[in-house]
Amino acid sequence: MLSHDNITDEIPVISADELKDYPVALSLSEMFCDADIFYTYDELCEHIEQTKRFAAEYSDYSVKSNNFPAFRNLKISIIKSKRVIVSKSNSPAIHFVIRHPKLRTAIENFRPPFKENYSE
């Protein structure tokens, strides 16, 4: 994809305490893997650092931090003006490919006004 598109990954900022309450798993849904591999805080920080180094090496790839992620279980991939892929991160893997112009544009322009409440 980097050979013909620009890619930006938005990575949630997660504290060590938040990771204890809401563990983060390595995203394996694109491989339809039914196992969860959870990060330690050090592993997560190292993965983010490696991602930032990768972004520094490739001009068509960028990464930005998100202090207020709206969703914990969804990955949204946007190929601007072409398609949007919404994937559920944990097993069972579910992927929706959206090509409908109005729905795609709505998702491309979506800015969540809240952080999802997980205490319930």
Layout of SSEs?
Blueprint: E1 7-12, H1 16-21, H2 41-57, E2 61-66, E3 74-79, E4 83-88, E5 94-98, H3 101-108
Parallel strand pairs: 1-2
Antiparallel strand pairs: 3-4, 4-5
What are the defining features of this structure?
26% helix, three-stranded antiparallel beta sheet, globular, 3 helices, alpha+beta, 120 residues
Can you walk through the features of this model?
The protein is an alpha+beta fold and 120 residues long. The chain has one domain (7-108). Helices cover 26% and strands 24% of the residues. It contains 3 helices and 5 strands. It has helices at 16-21, 41-57, 101-108; strands at residues 7-12, 61-66, 74-79, 83-88, 94-98. The protein has a 3-stranded antiparallel beta sheet, with helices on one face. A two-stranded parallel ribbon has the order 1-2. The N and C termini lie far apart (39 Å).
